[in-house]
Structure formats: structure tokens, C-alpha cells
Amino acid sequence: MVAEVDVAVVGAGAAGLAATRSLLQAGLSVTLLEADSRSGGRAHTETMRDGSPFDLGCHWLHSASINPFVVIADQLGCRYQKRAVSGRYVRGGRWLPVAEAATLEQALIDYKVAMAAAWSRGEDISVFEAIDRDSPWTPVLDYFTALNTSAEVDQVSIGDILNYQDTEEDWPVSDGYGELVTRWAAGIPVQLNTAVQQIHWDGAGVAVETVRGTLTASRIIVAVSTGVLAAGQIRFMPELPGSKLAAIAALPLGNYNRIRLEIDRHLFADDLPERIVVEHGELPPMSLALRPYQQDCVVGMVAGRYADWLERAGPEASRQAVIDSLCQALGNDMAKHVRGDRQSAWRGNPYVLGAYSASAPGQFHQRAALAGPLNERLFFCGEATSTNQFCTCHGAKITGERAAIEVAASLGITSRLH
Predict the structure, then answer these.
(1) What's the CATH number of domain 85-164+256-343, 3.60.70.12, 3.90.660.10, 3.20.20.100, 3.40.50.920?
(2) Of 35, 246, 362, 411, which one's alpha carbon is 20 to 30 angstroms from that of 131?
(3) In Å, how far are 19, 68, 75, 304, 413 from 63, measured between CA atoms?
């Protein structure tokens, strides 16, 4: 590890990778430090035993027309699907007629109108407080909110829902979003297995103590999750100011896990939709992707407190939850055809400690506060620091590039960054 550099970057997710790439292109010396044995952070694709890719983390090119990873995917030949995914709803073992399910669209409009009205009154309240709780679609809308924010409706500010820049173009990456990030990041040097323990930022520059030694830098960019920051895994000397600690606490990570069942795709009739949402009993709804990309699998998605509960209960509980939903929709006979499973567990991942950030009610302004640099030496980036593209991989990338520009400006070399 180089002992002295212009800039140290901590965390090799999309934000840290983007910051490092930009700074290297500007001609600065940079060391990117990553505690994990791989880069990519919450963008992670694994290859299943049948050769198909499976994203444990991010999977959708959200807001595709303004998402920089779309252009990158085209350049790198990474495949995605530019289409809407059809869906049906199963409630209590009954498939809802199309006309009945269509009422969800109006419920969704009412949902957003109620939040917009509260926001216009200057009320930064929770989604739970802002909306009508008596709609028959409330459980599904709550579930969709949890998928979008990784938190429950009582835990997330309406500011997150209303300020997110959504073009309503969500394109799944069939080759894997994690694979896309890996290809894009090829050639960016990363010091893996190098956990940062302390950051000293009270001098003219910074000193970074890691498990592999100490390096000094003129500037440092912190690109780790708010989960890691809140857990105190990195000690700052001197301690971060109270305003920055408050911002970290106000942007906790929720949870979101993807659970893949291995099952023969030929068991599903050709006229079955690719996506169904199943409601049964007192459990939260569950979205199931049936034979996505014509692969032999079903993928269930859980978020919020339910994701935490299943993760704590263990892999078998998560597997059974998806099987139960599948059987509710297509009959109990489906259970005997499940051959194996693979699932994420982001809350327990020690290098992230959750899925993505949700601003607590009354705290949406803390995203901008977390993004602010300290003493022109300590800079912050990551999806939690975005004010309009949070909870996304491309949002993280954009904040990394923003932090690189801030660092370059502090060093007087803005003309070399774009």
C-alpha cells in the first residue's frame, strides 16, 4: 500500500469507484480502500450452478432515461430489458380480476396526492401519517414503499417519496447489475481486505489507519454506508461534529432481500405473468418473479421489518416464506419441485449492515447535510448523500463524481475534472 497519496477513498461501492475513477483521470494519486474481499458494495451478482446470473443487491436500472449506467451497459454489452413487466395480484388464494386490480392505479395516485398535500403544507411527516389507511390496497402500497425505500411506512419521510427523481422507467439487468458494475470498474485499482480503523483529520491533511498499515493523504472521501458509519466501525479523530452525527443517525439503512428458489421454468404455464404479488394471512404481501429471463427459478422480494425478521429467523424461514407465497398462487404441489435456494442477507453483511438509506420522518434535509464536506479535507458520498437519486446504484455513482469534483476544487484543479 502506497504510504502517501493525494486522495484516499474509503469504500469501493459504486460511489467510491466513481470518485476514484474521476480523480485518477484528473491525474491525482489515489488509494481506494475496501474492507471486503470484493468491490461493488451493494451491487453484487453471483453465478448460479446452472450458469444464470443472480443479483443479491441492486437489479433495476431505475429512471433509465437519466441513468448513466444505461449508456455504460450499452458500451460494455451488458444486457438489460427495456420493457414493462406484466403483473397480477393474488389475494387470499384468489386471483384478482384485471378490472379489480386496475383500481390499484387510482389508489397509487391518491397515495401520492396525499403525501404531496402534506409536503406542500411544510409537513415532513412519515408516509404512514400522510395517507389514508382504509384503502383495500394499503398493504400492497405499504409493501411497494418498503421495496422502494427498504423501510416501513412509519419509518420513512414523505420527502423521500416526493423528491426522488422517478421517470417511471425501471429496466431489469438480465446479465446482472453487479456484473455491470464489475465490468465498468475493471482497471480501477482497489486495496481489498483493507478495513479502515481510524481517520485522523485534525492536521493539514489526513492520516488513515488500516489493518494493513497507515497512509497519509491531502484529502479523504468517505464512501461507506450509513450503517457502517452509525455502527462506529471507523473512528474519527477528532470525533465528527454533532451535526454530521445527527445526519448519519437520521439516514439509517433499512433492509431488502432477494430470495431465489431453483425450480423448473416449464412448470409455469405460458400464459402466467412474469410477476405476481401475493397477499395471504397477516403477513406482508410478497412480489414473485416467475421464471425471469426464462431461467429455472422464482425470485421473492422482502423488505423492511419483514426482511429483518426473516433474516434473523434464518435461511430456511426465508425459503419457506417464498414457497408459501408460491403455493398460495399456484397450489401446494409447487413446494415439492423446489430444488435449492440462494438469498441475500444485507442486514448481516458486516461491510454494509443493511440495504439502503431511508430518511426518518422530519429528517429529509439530512441527506444534504451528510453530503457536506468538513474543513476541505473530509468529503462524503454514497446513495444516502443524494437528494434526488438515493437508494440507487446510479445515485451512488453520481455522488462519487460530485465528491471528486469537490476534492479537485479544494485542490485548485477543477479544470481537469468534468
Answers:
(1) 3.90.660.10
(2) 246
(3) 22, 10, 18, 22, 32
